[in-house]
Write a structure and sequence with these properties.
Helices cover 58% and strands 5% of the residues. The chain has 19 helices and six strands. A hairpin with a 2-residue loop joins strand 1 and strand 2. The mean pLDDT is 94.
């Protein structure tokens, strides 16, 4: 009997999450732990500790190759934890099993004399803290950001393409004034761009300072060594070729403070909120017939109504974005809190960080797919706009104010509010005003398709 997927992330969405699974999955966590342990061993061999030889080039290569865990290596680490291996009993401890794995691998090499240095003076949380920081950095840099940048580019392209496509803007759901579809898309692109920029500057904290963060064991064994500097060397080595950098929190308990986790999660949550807002607006435009969706041959919109082309991509995005936000909000509130010097309630929670990222990534892919299938219906938008000449009331009363009419707002309010107006009725109203002919001409020149301010320039980015 095979293990059926329990979560849609491992089932129907799995093919969308290959990259994320590679950099944030359970195998990735084991690889990160191995990298952290090996980097620490490498640094220890540079400190001039009594009886500890420096690494030769060949030994450095051995350690480097060990970082690339094979499937067999991963299986061995899991076996050490759950069943044991040879004379080693089951550790029932995921970090200790990594230590024993490295001992087994290095026992047959020239590094066998340095086996006591594996996991030297560390607590499991040192390795886990660095490992989860690596996973967060990789998850954002290699999985989330590339898709978000694609969405940003598609929004920018759409906003420029439809910069002049007029649209009836609605506030409180009611006809307001004319705008352009491109400008309204540019709103989302600008918001998203700001959050992407912030995401690229995020840094992830971690700790590497022993049982309760004081380097107690380190200094007991070798009091002359600058151990905080040695810990920084580990992080420096892991930061090579990395855009989202790791850094050491200067003062911690057994666990890192994880305030940067909350900052990172809140950043992603802001991205998700923006895209939720966008998905809902697209749903509204599609519902109103202003945005058309390309049909996909053979695709079923409804199991009983064959004519339907449902906005499923934006609906899928909305649901997954909200689920991701709920998880991210919980993670932001939970992970920076630990009783006294530590409690273990964070352990199972940390394992679910990739789940929050997974639902976000599924949503981002759905937004991209939705964007690839839509087209703005300029004819339908013009027809809707033409049916609401009352949206010129703002312009009329403002021009009258500029002329010096004291009750301009009240005049337009009493004439337009709660009425269905025709263009001819608006013309008659203007003609009946006791104002100079030049001002009447200015009012008559107002048109629903040109009363858009600098919407076109905003859409195109030429508004400075």
């Amino acid at each position: 009997m095979t293990n059926a997927p329990l979560s849609p992330l491992d089932g129907r969405y799995a093919n969308k999450l290959t990259t994320l699974a590679t950099v944030m999955g359970e195998d990735a966590l084991l690889r990160a732990r191995v990298r952290a342990e090996i980097m620490w061993l490498s640094v220890l061999c540079t400190l001039g500790l009594p009886g500890v030889k420096k690494l030769s080039a060949a030994e450095q290569k051995i350690l480097s190759n060990l970082c690339d865990l094979s499937a067999q290596d991963v299986a061995l680490i899991r076996m050490l934890e759950t069943k044991g291996y040879g004379k080693i009993p089951a550790t029932r401890h995921d970090v200790k099993s990594v230590e024993y794995f490295l001992r087994l691998k290095l026992a047959k090499t020239s590094l066998k004399d340095r086996l006591p240095l594996i996991h030297f003076a560390l607590t499991s949380e040192d390795i886990n803290s660095v490992s989860y920081a690596l996973l967060l950095s990789d998850g954002v840099e290699k999985a989330l950001l590339p898709v978000l940048e694609k969405i940003q580019r598609e929004l920018l392209k759409l906003s420029r393409k439809e910069a002049h496509a007029v649209l009836l803007a609605r506030t409180h759901g009611q006809p307001a004034v004319p705008t352009t579809f491109g400008k309204e898309i540019r709103v989302f692109e600008t918001r998203l761009t700001r959050q992407i920029k912030a995401l690229k500057t995020q840094q992830v904290s971690c700790k590497f300072s022993g049982a309760v963060g004081n380097f107690n064991a380190h200094y007991a064994a070798f009091p002359a060594v600058n151990w905080p500097r040695a810990a920084r060397q580990v992080i420096g080595g892991l930061n090579k070729n990395r855009k989202l950098k790791l850094f050491l929190s200067p003062v911690t308990t057994q666990v890192d403070n994880r305030d940067t986790y909350a900052e990172l999660f809140d950043n992603i949550r802001r991205v998700n909120v923006i895209l939720t807002d966008f998905s809902r607006d697209m749903w509204q435009y599609i519902s109103a017939g202003l945005v058309k969706q390309k049909t996909v041959k053979g695709e079923v919109g409804s199991s009983t109504m064959p004519q339907k082309v449902n906005p499923i991509d934006f609906e899928n995005a909305e649901g997954n974005l909200q689920l991701s936000c709920a998880l991210l909000d919980f993670l932001s509130n939970k992970l920076p809190v630990s009783r006294l010097q530590r409690d273990l309630s964070d352990s199972t929670v940390l394992r679910n960080v990739p789940v929050a990222f997974g639902h976000a990534l599924v949503a981002y892919e759905s937004v991209l797919k939705g964007l690839s299938k839509i087209a703005f219906d300029k004819t339908a938008a013009r027809e809707e706009l033409a049916a609401h000449p009352e949206v010129l009331a703002e312009g009329i009363q403002t021009i009258l104010r500029a002329y010096g009419c004291e009750n301009a707002y009240e005049l337009l309010r009493d004439f337009t509010r709660g009425r269905v107006l025709s263009a001819s009725a608006l013309t008659d109203f203007i003609d009946g005003l006791d104002i100079p002919a030049s001002v009447k001409m200015q009012l008559h020149m107002l048109d629903v398709e040109t009363y858009t301010g600098i919407a076109q320039q905003l859409a195109e980015g030429n508004h400075d």
